[in-house]
Every structure is written in structure tokens, then in C-alpha cells.
TrEMBL record:
It comes from the Bacteria. It comes from Paraliobacillus ryukyuensis. Residues 1-19 form the signal peptide. Keywords: Signal. This is Lipoprotein.
Length: 204
């Protein structure tokens, strides 16, 4: 019960502190790894699981939509639906800056759950079927702590959590061939992805 209360408090903190606006100029959305953030350190200190945290900057936030989702592959086969997903857009601010991320709670237990968060949004943790107990698991970011520009319409892999029966290795998440090999060779793969889209043009 104490862990549930603590997690609920942390999720509320995401809502309170992850949103913001900025007058910074620039046309392209940018994202960078925030591996030493307060959120990540709190997750580690409380042994809640894994948290992938990012600094995210979105110009023209009033005219754009952001989609964040997690795909899972098991024995090379993609699940029909994302494990979890969220989308948001058409902000009242022209520019927004804040944190986005992906959390895995109790990754090696039967009650594993996952959630996503973005400025002003935290979705409810979803319990997932866990088949990782007998595999060697590893996790990795797909980008670095340097800012990466996100083009409108581009799908970018931000992070991966994956495992194999006998060994686990890291892969180049920005190389399609490398990602495909990981999906085929590892027993399970979770991929965190992001995509930015322009607001649909209204018909005249």
C-alpha cells in the first residue's frame, strides 16, 4: 500500500512540474536524454523500476500534436496494440518545454506495469503480461544527452527495454537493420517512440 501511495504522489508531481512555456526562438522540436533527473533519481532511490526521462521542447505547440507510444515484440512478433500510448496537442502556448518519459514499474515481477507522461499528462499505469523473469534484460536510450531535432511526421525511437534467453546486448536504435535484428534475436523488445504531426487543416 505504501508503494502505491508513493507512486501516486510521484505521478502527481509529474503533472505539477513537467509542464512549462518558453520564449526561446526556434522552429524545430528538440529532445534530449535527462538521465539524472529528479524523477529518475527518485525512481532509483525507491526501487520502483526503470524510468526513461527526456527534456522536450515543442515550438508551434498550438498547431502541433505529439504522439508517444510503446510497442512490444515477443519472439519477433509485434503486439497488435501498443502497450501504452498518449497524444496531446493544440496547446494554448506557442512554445512548450517540459519532461516526457516512460516508466516501467516492477520490471521483474508478475505485477509489472507501464506508464507514459508528458507536460500536463500522466496516463494510468497499465499492468502487462510479464515474460521476462527467465531472461537477461537490458535497457538503453536511443538518443544522447545532446539535443536532437524532431522533424514533423518523423517517427523516432527514444528508448528500448529488451531481453534474451542467454545474453543481452545494446543495439543502434537509429539504424533500421540493427533494430530489426534486435527484434528477431531477443525474446522480447519494448520500444518507446515519438511522432510530431501538424494540426489537420480544416476544410473550407
Amino acid at each position: 500500500m505504501k508503494k502505491v501511495i508513493t507512486l501516486s504522489a510521484i505521478l502527481c508531481c509529474f503533472l505539477v512540474t513537467s509542464a512549462g512555456c518558453s520564449n526561446t526562438h526556434g522552429d524545430g522540436a528538440t529532445i534530449s536524454v535527462n538521465a539524472d533527473s529528479e524523477y529518475v533519481n527518485t525512481f532509483n532511490d525507491l526501487h520502483l523500476g526503470l524510468l526513461f526521462d527526456f527534456n522536450f521542447r515543442l515550438p508551434h505547440a498550438d498547431d502541433r500534436w505529439v504522439k508517444l507510444w510503446v510497442e512490444r515484440y515477443q519472439d519477433g512478433k509485434k503486439d497488435l496494440e501498443p502497450l501504452t500510448q498518449l497524444s496531446y496537442g493544440e496547446s494554448p502556448n506557442e512554445m512548450e518545454e517540459g519532461n516526457i518519459g516512460f516508466g516501467i514499474i516492477n520490471p521483474n515481477q508478475k505485477d509489472t506495469s507501464v506508464f507514459l507522461y508528458a507536460p500536463n499528462i500522466v496516463n494510468k499505469p497499465v499492468i502487462i503480461e510479464n515474460k521476462t523473469k527467465e531472461t537477461m534484460t537490458t535497457w538503453q536510450y536511443g538518443i544522447s544527452e545532446d539535443e536532437v531535432t524532431l522533424e514533423v511526421g518523423e517517427t523516432k525511437i527514444l528508448a528500448a527495454y529488451h531481453g534474451a534467453d542467454h545474453s543481452a546486448r545494446t543495439w543502434d536504435l537509429q539504424d533500421t537493420e540493427s533494430v530489426n535484428k534486435m527484434i528477431q534475436q531477443d525474446s522480447f523488445v519494448m520500444l518507446l517512440k515519438i511522432k510530431i504531426e501538424e494540426k489537420p487543416t480544416e476544410a473550407s
